[in-house]
Amino acid sequence: MERLAIDGGTPVRTRPFPGVLEPGGRTFGEQEREAVLAVLDSAVLNATCGGPWLDDLESAMAQLHGVPHAVACSSGTAALHLAVAAVDPEPGDEIITTPLTDFGTVIAILAQNAVPVFADVDPATGNLTVESVRACLSPRTRAIVVVHLFGAAAPVRELRALADERGIVLIEDCAQAYLARPPGGDRPVGGYGHAGCFSLQQYKHVTSGDGGLVITSDAGLAERMRLFADKAWPREDGRTHLFLAMNYRMTNLTAAVAGVQLRRLPGVVRQRRQLAARLCDAVAGLEGVRMPANPHDHAWWVVPLILPGGGNQRWAQALTAEGVTAHAGWLKMPVYRYPALAQRRTYGRSGFPLTSPPARQEWHYPPGLCPEAERLIEHTLVMLPWNENYTTSDVDDIAAAVRKVHAAMPSVR
């Protein structure tokens, strides 16, 4: 058996892979440069002052997803805040979400004085299950925020049916899942819920550094989100503000870059899928290693490996030593164990809105709250970065490293 690099053997690879913080790992080109210069030459960088770039971006996003409305904003977190604010929860109302997500998902809930309620996840995908969401419903539930983790579509059609049954709103967090499709779905994620939120942050499929987009088929939600992004200022009516809101406006510079990037998106996702299919084929049949199901509908933001037998820390260390950067568990802990929630550090030391009143109970988030999510983090999930600019040789090196580590670790199978 070949000796692992972590134990003194020769690594599979010593060259770095393309990454999203360098030109070789991004899809920027002359069109982005021309778009930025066009904005600078216009002298109008603020989108509320004119220029075609914001409208063009929103129209392209809506058309891509087959919905009538898209609203641009300053970040993916802002996009989620727009969607939650459009629901207009009362203080202490509850919004169900996942413990496996960026904290921006939870920020949007707390910022509107609502209570995040955490449902557990599918151990094979890390996505919310319908059963766990149903178990969290209460008379104060106003919405569900479902995250399509790592590029795999959550059971969003079933969750929409549940939301409609209970008369609540379904919000999709699609930041990692551009153009992913659920099993049997006829369109990409984002259009199944009442609102679908996207991020243009540096690490996403397409980027303008930061930025966000929300899509919806509901004209009322679209109008409220558009107002919320601009301090609830209906500019056609003069200087007035209709309700408490934020300044989450996107600039013309951001919109111009994002507009070009969005045109590249289908090719980016197609290339990621083709490369991932090669990896799936190369590691198929490895006992105790699970790759995502439905690879041709997956968006492949990253490659999640699931090890049902555990051992993710050792696997991540071994793969990294082989020259394939790997991360055990993605998060260090579920988001409900962050001090902001575990210690209820929200608005000063008040604990608001997790205290009673306005909540129906004193909310605490102890270890063990979502055991499947905690097991993924602590034992079974290994995450590998992915990039549309990988070569087939890069993919073959990754596959070789996975097979080598697998052969040396029978105890976790």
UniProtKB/TrEMBL annotation:
Highest taxon of the lineage: Bacteria
Keywords on record: Aminotransferase, Pyridoxal phosphate, Transferase
Stretches the record annotates as Disordered: 1-26
Cofactor(s) required, per the database record: pyridoxal 5'-phosphate
GO molecular function terms listed in the Swiss-Prot or TrEMBL record: transaminase activity
InterPro entries: DegT/StrS_aminotransferase, PyrdxlP-dep_Trfase, PyrdxlP-dep_Trfase_major, PyrdxlP-dep_Trfase_small
Family recorded in the similarity comment: Belongs to the DegT/DnrJ/EryC1 family.
UniProt cross-references to PANTHER family, sorted A to Z: DTDP-4-AMINO-4,6-DIDEOXYGALACTOSE TRANSAMINASE, TRANSAMINASE
Protein name (Swiss-Prot/TrEMBL): DegT/DnrJ/EryC1/StrS family aminotransferase
Organism: Dactylosporangium fulvum
Lineage: Bacteria, Bacillati, Actinomycetota, Actinomycetes, Micromonosporales
